[in-house]
Amino acid sequence: MNKFLGNKTAILLFILPALLLYTVMVFYPIVQTFFRSMYEWDGLTEGTFIWFDNYTRLFQDSLFFTSVKNGLIFAIIITVTQIGIGSILAFAVADAKIKGRKILRISFFIPVVLSITVVCQLWLSIYNGEYGLINKIFEILGLEYKQDWLTSSKSAIIAIAFVNAWQYMGYHFALLLAGVKSVPEQYMEAARIDGATKLQAILKINIPMMAETYKFCLVFAITGGLNAFANMYIMTSGGPGTSTYTLTYLMYRSAFRVGEFGYGSAAAAILVIECLIATLIINRLIARERISY
Amino acid sequence: MKKLAITVMSFCMVFLAACGSAGNNEAANNTAANEGNKETATNAAEETKTEEAVPVKLRIYAQYADDDTKLPYDYAVAELKKEMPNVELELEVQAQDDGQKLKTYAATGNLPDIFQAGLDIITTFKKSGNILELDSYVDSLGFRDKMYPSTMNTLVTDDGHTYAFPYAGNEFALLYYNKELFEQNNVKVPTTYDELMAAVTAFNAAGITPLSIFAKEKWPTVALFDMFVTRNEPQGIQKLDKGQASISDPAYKDAADKIVELVKAGMLPKGATNLNYDQAAALFHQGKAAMFLNGQWEIAESTKQLGDKAGWMYIPGVDAANYEASKYAFSGGGGPGGYAVNPDTKDKDLTAKVAAFLSLKYAEYKYTERGNPLVATKVDKAIVTEYPPMMQQLSDDIAKITSTTAFAWGLSDAKFKAAIEDASQSLLTGAYTTEQFISDVSKAVPAAK
Q1: Rounded to whole angstroms, how far apart are CA atoms A181 and B196?
Q2: ipTM above 0.95, yes or no
Q3: Nearest-CA residue of chain B relative to A151?
Q4: What per-residue confidence (pLDDT) applies to A289?
Q5: Nearest CA of chain A to the CA of B224: how many Å?
Q6: How many cross-chain Cβ pairs, A to B, lie less than 8 Å apart?
Q7: CB contact under 8 A, B273 and A124
Q8: What is the pLDDT of residues A208-233, one digit of tens each?
Q9: Min CA distance, A224 vs chain B (Å)?
Q10: What does the DSSP assignment read for A126-193?
Q11: Cβ atoms within 10 Å of B97's Cβ, excluding its own
Q12: Which residues of B touch A251 (CB under 8 A)?
């Protein structure tokens, strides 16, 4: 291994294709976004360099704060639901006593492979104020709790977040299940001999040993929540009004509806910074040292 | 280390060699292209000499989605084949994407020869030099003579120039109603706000949705707001767009107040801001909603679904006097738009001629076959399809119309358009106050910049 790592030529040769691709497809556009965020630019003409004016405007724009707030609400809801319920399901399915584990494993993963448009259309019917499934259930139960789920400016973002949470819970479930299975059996045996209950074993052995997996899931869920777009685009078009805007939606509106590409780039730049900070914090707080079994 | 240096060097060499050859290829292509241009130039010269037409292929980016856009287009193309058999059109169907695809084409230098442009595209492309000014062609092709005096606003933009050959005339937003439902429930067709409020209450009591609207699309919400504004300010939202009025002016404030009041009273179906056209129209067509808001192009569909039961009403006024005074102040209208020409097209004269021809024939078909008198240009052929009664009523009223405004897509200021669309949709939730509405829109009104 040392000999291999000593061969710098080989290292360069192997990383070069990926590095080139990464530079062209990821790094260059990000640099461009930051660069363009300092322009007043309509995407077609030359544009004027205006330093940080777009950012100053952004921080005075109430829509920016609505977008950031919605991004955070979205991220929190999907993180808690996906990782929380995903963990419970993963521990359940990993238990040898549970019957039909294979079917459960597959069925939890099915929503992940469905197209996001299909899922959104499905939930649009479920949430429908007139004949939607949820309101019908309340009606059958004789409850007066009928809601305009997607058309109330307060509940819409929460309703949309749950759709995303439902769809991608299976993804986190699969990751966590792999994590549970990678914990060596002898630790669990030792715990059993010492008289630990199932719950104690999970809390004291499984979860701490799966810190790396949880870190990965957290980064995915939080950044996925902050830059949510497709769900609101399909389900509410950012509405009612602007109540389900996120930073990505603000970027879309500024660039494509209003034709202010510079302002849109500024929103995108803030989004990149926001996601970077979230990732750094998660990396700082969780699994700082590599776990080896 | 030496090895590493050699490897890096050799990579650089390979890379440079690859780039070099690519450059050569490009040069070779350029030469070929130049030769091609020369060839075209020679061909053009020959053409003028012999007056023989060479086959020309033009790319066109146009609406081609439903019968109302497909049939007139097909007719125009068929007529073009007769008139200019050497011209072949390569159609690319216009995407419903706020002009994103077209703008991307413009940014990458890949703009089609002819494209459909609305006011927002004209405004943007004018700045970036992506649209040909057609003033000279309007006269040389005799297009100006074919326009109705009342539709000149669709030909000329505010700067006095023409950038597109229009086919659509001034269209209107109408308030449709189901006559049978009004009669059955003993409700008077409203002429004032109070009567409208009474109708809302009566229909709600009878379990009928008073007014159906597809508010997931934002333009109908703007049209509803505009209808209320026009009772006191005939220029409606257009005056805001031009920066000549403030959103806090009484006409706008009162309109927002009235909408909030009516929404709170239950004027709209549940979840209106998430209803698409199919869902909202179904409520009206199936007799579950008493009124429906849409453009005059809905006449055909409503007549098909409801027959004589469907009608359209004049917008209720503040009081009886206001109703009479503002009866012919219509909401909606037209604006500059139609088939535009790419300034980089090979033969500008020919492309402009084709674009003008297509517009005329497109309008001709809509007028003769689609029962639509609201076209931009005069048609000298007889009508094949008779107007439905609702269209007849509108057609009779056209001469009496005192003012029109604009649909949301006819607004020229993109920022104001986005703001009024978002805010008008919020108004329909009932949980959004007039103060919030004024504050949100005022930030984007051109005059307030």
Answers
A1: 67
A2: no
A3: B271
A4: 66
A5: 15
A6: 102
A7: no
A8: 999 999 999 999 999 999 999 999 99
A9: 25
A10: HH-TTT-HHHHHHHHTT------TTTSTTTHHHHHHHHHHHHHHHHHHHHHHHHHHHS-HHHHHHHHH
A11: 11
A12: none
Cβ neighbour number for residue B297 with a 10 Å cutoff: 16
Q: What is the pTM of this model?
A: 0.85
Q: Which domains can be identified in chain B, with CATH numbers?
A: 56-162+335-368 (3.40.190.10), 173-332+404-448 (3.40.190.10)
- List residues of A whose CB lies inside 8 A of any B CB: 8-9, 12-13, 16, 42-45, 62, 124, 128-130, 148-154, 235-243, 253, 256-260
Among B190, B227, B222, residue whose Cα is nearest residue B403: B227
**Nearest 10 degrees: Cα torsion B438, B444, B446, B449:** 100
| Mean pLDDT (whole number) for A242-251 | 95
Helix H or strand E encompassing B183: helix B179-184
Confidence (pLDDT) at A128: 87
Residue A267, pLDDT > 90, answer yes
Helices (H) and strands (E) in chain A, counts: 16, 2
A13/B274 Cβ within 8 A: no
* Mean pLDDT, 10 residues at a time, chain B of 449 residues: 51 44 40 42 44 84 90 96 95 88 92 94 92 95 91 91 94 96 96 96 96 94 97 94 93 96 94 91 96 93 94 95 94 93 95 96 92 88 87 89 91 90 93 94 75
Q: What is the pLDDT of residue A293?
A: 59
Report whether B407 contacts B219 (CB < 8 A): yes
User: Domains of chain A by range and CATH?
Assistant: 52-285 (1.10.3720.10)
Give backbone dihedrals phi and psi of B377, rounded to 5 degrees, phi first.
-115, 155
Reply yes or no: is the peptide bond before residue A240 cis, omega within 30 of 0.
Answer: yes
Residue of A nearest to B107 (CA): A44
Cβ of B2 under 8 Å from any chain A Cβ? no
Q: Are the beta carbons of B274 and A260 separated by less than 8 Å?
A: no
Distance from CA of B218 to the nearest CA of A (A): 9
Cβ-defined contact of B124 to A152 (cutoff 8 Å): no
Residue A1: pLDDT over 60: no
Among candidates B421, B413, B410, B442, which has minimal Cα distance to B252?
Answer: B442
Phi, psi of B19 (to 5 degrees): -60, -45
- List beta partners, residue B59: B90
pLDDT at residue B47 in the model:
45
